């Protein structure tokens, strides 16, 4: 073990390791068994023992996932409901807010994860200590009741026929509570036989695809609907309360006082919370700032200080109080109440919000990222929480309508509810303390909350959702970081953690080239590509130069996402570079750089041919050892590696021509299914120890790397700590494979793999909204959106005005959401008799199109095709090749908000 007196970063520098990758530093010390000559036998069964009826059910629409109090499913639920890059605020199963990781304390090695702690885990052979960065929240998830931090909640009072009823909106007060997640909105319903109203609560922060600014408010909205379910009139009152959380961590005895002040305008009544420090230095504390609690409308009555709980009738009858204070560390809780007479069947509607403003970035963060010195982007827009609240209140109708419209659009689909949930919810990572947006607009993140700095290229390149939902963030990241602070002008290398590293990673380099192409596709025009092409070309050339012998298969030892430098020709890296070269060819052709396009084309042709010839072992693709070094160092060699055809997976995401032949690619995916996937990882992880606990006994998953032929020393002569990765189920990699399975038509396998991840994160076990790898809310898990893209057969190229849909099932009656560069909406196709109708409905923004590719559902020849936008006929031409129908318009078609493009095919 390391000498604990040695400075961590000094040790890494002296050892020549990554200054940015503390995964190497803080990884567990592996048991001796994984270094033994007698390597454990492969024990993943070929027969997966999958119930056919269960498998069939995965295709069905089903019911929206709902968790219930009566099933004891609320213990771990924590759905992020704050704005993007504004810290973490969770809503729990009973509708109360918890965690409040908004105080900038998260930092590597000190406050990692959503619940920094170390737990004990029996890996099958020994009891190991597991930290937050190793998956402690998977073994022992954070419990909502232990991490409430701030007092917050609601109570409802009903006066009916002279009798008074009072209940708080908390788990212990109601017989039946249901929690229905539809990220970004949580729907909670409360019912009790002894209470004459039903209560519905919607909780979210404004979340509007393509609008990163309005989706990044440090605020949470709580919308109440309290309905009279009796046949008699009644009087209903609601009381909402919120603790003054300013200097919550540092406001100790005699350090100052908390102050609540009430205010009102034409939009809302509010209570502004601040802290008056006894010493100026407390203004520099991480938790120094402001908060604001508001109720829409002018009818609310404010109480700047309310008594402790439980809530009783007096809480609804206290006089209005315009100002209150309390000396630290005393709590200061404010309330806003509203009353209304309700006829039978009528509802009281109350829209509350909480906003916060804590702009003192962690000093440790300022040391490693200069951009953090000026604080955060939201603070550049708003001077304090009152200004946030004022903006939210003034724009409340627009922000809530558009957020709820997106939620409705996303869920109005024929795709299974569970599938829509699991493929989308990981974008909630943006609304946690894992990501930041600094004052100058720069986006920056850890890999997982507080662990591994620098928006790591070899992790984030797996994450497809951000580019499709908030493309401006990815475009800015490409320009400002990958071609800016992290770019080496002399060589074209992209440093994989920007200023938090000094070297490139080969997979990060290739993946970022592919992202350049994707960001171009998700743009309205070619400005992004044209402006950045000279540097993009340098980055591509650097990647091409890593092929030392010119056979199209990169063979230069370089860092990769498994935190090691592998020698030789590695199928997953070779294929990824081929895909990146294919993307580069497309970009070069678009900018008119024909000579470079030819260079890339040759690389793709040579690489694809040689990869299939040299790296396919008859079953799957392998890692061919370096001719000189052999198998001395760690590698995957002749084992079955999860990412072996990752390049082809990426190619599908951006509509590239095939880069690896279908026959061998499908063979490789079948091998992964045969050798790496199991419905119960228990027997495998019990014998193959050393991995982190991201799937436990009784749970299904796809293991990273297996040794199906039981070779001795399968991973090389000098195995190192990184070998532990091979025995894990990391969901980001699994989602990548699921997306690829779907794209290749292996739909059932894709659904099963995605579903076992969904089941691993069921609320009865752990937080459904926190996929864990190296710490919580791990960025790679946003690869899940790629499976949705593949299920829709979706391709898009904004500058070319091109869109494609080719659903993988339910082709005769299919509906799903889509996003584009400037608009989003719903796509549907339906076949009735000899006619099939395809429709694009714009819900937001606009969509410009010139070319559309669809599929003939029954394969028959197309006799006629008409196009209409509303009642306007659009002249188009078409041709059919197999089932594909290629449609072109002589001039650009523009579909505007609330318009339909209808394509009728006979």
UniProtKB/TrEMBL annotation:
GO terms for biological process: carbohydrate metabolic process. One of its GO terms (molecular function) is hydrolase activity, hydrolyzing O-glycosyl compounds. It comes from Pedobacter steynii. Residues 78-398 form the Glycosyl-hydrolase family 116 N-terminal domain. Gene3D superfamilies: 1.50.10.10. It comes from the Bacteria. Residues 507-785 form the Glycosyl-hydrolase family 116 catalytic region domain. This is Twin-arginine translocation signal domain-containing protein.
